[in-house]
């Protein structure tokens, strides 16, 4: 099927499209927006459950980036209100209830990443950032139930995948969580009224919530709004991406260094390079096709490009090139340790094993012993065989010490202050 709008065509070509409430209407609305008519204004919500988003959320940010690149207006909706409830989607247990102070701190930390991908301002197509606490904190419970409660049926709500899965597994879903879908639908209604928002975007796991919002806008205000989802970030083996053995791949540099972020993309499977280039970079499609055609060991060249381009978008070109140079020197046996992540220690650990644990390279002294026995640990590029020995005195003198786990994990440690 040929699509007339650049936005829908981009979604299709770059692997962002999964399903839409009305694809033909979306194509028409996007085309009108691209020709200077009514802006296609789309939003994605982000709850403030952690101090940083991770690469699973980055796919949603890239979706908003595509919208703005095609002449649409993105709305970044911070979930200062909905975080107090917690989205039950793709969860097998209730999220912990966070205090207002933690929510505010998380929100402030998360907000910093969006300006790296979107252009914010006062222009008609500039991105804006709003917080659903603006209306959810002020809403009166009985008034809200009278206005929107009658448009939701329990029959339909328990039939949604996000609820049905929990019920089928006999995992309790609280009334608090059950209300999340009402609040998300209400967000769309408010954004439609306040900002003429006519599109909600999200991952495929948000389909049920998005449909509820589309229906609510139609029933309450008789407005024809739209929804579109993209596939979740999965590798070729069908596994969710965004986590490593050391935890989530965070977007904030204070939670994951640019070097480690670069390394994550450098180490993806061969089969994932092409789809990730399409979704997570701005590289032209014909250039991506040339990289996809590489075979054998040459695919590593494409992985380096993927890692460098994704890192440049998030952390800047200088940090990306520095990570690339550091990795080249490390794998080639050279120096260039300046680009490695640095771990500041409060005190000198009692042993080498404790040093590797404190640096976060291993989980325990026992794991340090096993890694050393297998030749997996190095200190200043020299193999560590006995992890019961003392830490080199250079650390106590304020010097940096290089630690390595395997061939791909390197960092520097020093005493704080």
Automatic annotation (TrEMBL):
Stretches the record annotates as Disordered: 371-392
Main location: cytoplasm
Name of the protein in its database record: Tyrosine--tRNA ligase
Swiss-Prot/TrEMBL GO biological process terms: tyrosyl-tRNA aminoacylation
Assembly: Homodimer.
Residue span of motif 'KMSKS' region: 240-244
Record-stated family: Belongs to the class-I aminoacyl-tRNA synthetase family. TyrS type 1 subfamily.
GO molecular function, one term: RNA binding
Record key words, sorted: Aminoacyl-tRNA synthetase, ATP-binding, Cytoplasm, Ligase, Nucleotide-binding, Protein biosynthesis, RNA-binding
Gene Ontology CC: one annotated term: cytosol
Catalytic activity, reaction form: tRNA(Tyr) + L-tyrosine + ATP = L-tyrosyl-tRNA(Tyr) + AMP + diphosphate + H(+)
Secretion signal span: none
Principal EC category: ligase
Residues spanned by motif 'HIGH' region: 48-57
Subcellular location: Cytoplasm
CDD domains on file: TyrRS_core
Residues the record lists as binding ATP: 243
The protein's role, per its UniProt record: Catalyzes the attachment of tyrosine to tRNA(Tyr) in a two-step reaction: tyrosine is first activated by ATP to form Tyr-AMP and then transferred to the acceptor end of tRNA(Tyr).
InterPro entries cross-referenced by the UniProt entry: aa-tRNA-synth_Ic (IPR002305), Rossmann-like_a/b/a_fold (IPR014729), S4_RNA-bd_sf (IPR036986), Tyr-tRNA-ligase (IPR002307), Tyr-tRNA-ligase_bac-type (IPR024088), Tyr-tRNA-ligase_bac_1 (IPR024107)
Transmembrane segments: none
Species for this entry: Candidatus Phycosocius bacilliformis
E.C. code: 6.1.1.1
Binding sites annotated in the UniProt record for L-tyrosine: 43, 180, 184
């Amino acid at each position: 099927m040929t699509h007339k709008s650049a936005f829908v065509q981009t979604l299709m070509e770059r692997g962002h499209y999964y399903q839409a409430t009305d694809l033909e209407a979306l194509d028409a609305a996007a085309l009108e927006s691209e020709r200077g008519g009514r802006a296609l204004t789309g939003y994605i919500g982000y709850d403030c459950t952690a101090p940083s988003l991770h690469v699973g959320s980055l796919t949603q940010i890239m979706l908003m980036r595509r919208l703005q690149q095609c002449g649409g207006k993105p709305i970044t909706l911070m979930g200062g209100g909905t975080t107090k409830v917690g989205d039950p989607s793709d969860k097998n247990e209730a999220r912990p209830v966070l205090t207002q102070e933690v929510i505010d701190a998380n929100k402030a930390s998360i907000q910093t990443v969006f300006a790296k991908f979107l252009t914010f301002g006062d222009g008609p197509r500039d991105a804006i950032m709003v917080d659903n606490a603006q209306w959810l904190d002020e809403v009166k419970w009985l008034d809200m139930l009278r206005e929107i409660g009658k448009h939701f049926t329990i029959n339909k709500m328990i039939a949604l995948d996000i609820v049905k899965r929990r019920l089928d597994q006999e995992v309790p879903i609280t009334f608090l969580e059950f209300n999340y879908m009402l609040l998300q639908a209400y967000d769309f209604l408010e954004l439609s009224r306040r900002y003429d928002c006519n599109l909600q975007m999200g991952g495929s796991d948000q389909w049920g919530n998005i449909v509820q919002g589309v229906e609510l806008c139609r029933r309450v205000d008789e407005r024809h709004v739209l929804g579109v989802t993209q596939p979740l970030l999965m590798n070729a083996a069908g596994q969710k991406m965004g986590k490593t053995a050391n935890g989530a791949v965070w977007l904030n540099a204070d939670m994951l260094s640019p070097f480690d972020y670069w390394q994550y993309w450098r180490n993806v499977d061969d089969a994932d390079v092409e789809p990730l280039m399409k979704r997570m970079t701005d590289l032209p499609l014909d250039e991506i096709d040339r990289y996809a055609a590489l075979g054998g060991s040459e695919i590593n060249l494409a992985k380096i490009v993927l890692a460098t381009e994704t890192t440049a978008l998030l952390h800047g070109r200088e940090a990306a090139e520095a990570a690339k140079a550091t990795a080249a020197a490390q794998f080639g046996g050279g120096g260039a340790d300046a680009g490695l992540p640095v771990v500041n220690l409060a005190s000198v650990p009692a042993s080498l094993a404790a040093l590797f644990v404190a640096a976060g390279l291993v989980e325990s002294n026992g794991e340090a012993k096993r890694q050393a026995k297998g030749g997996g640990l190095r200190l200043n590029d020299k193999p560590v065989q006995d992890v019961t020995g003392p830490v080199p005195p250079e650390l106590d003198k304020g010097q940096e010490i290089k630690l390595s786990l395997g061939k791909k994990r390197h960092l520097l440690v020093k005493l704080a202050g």
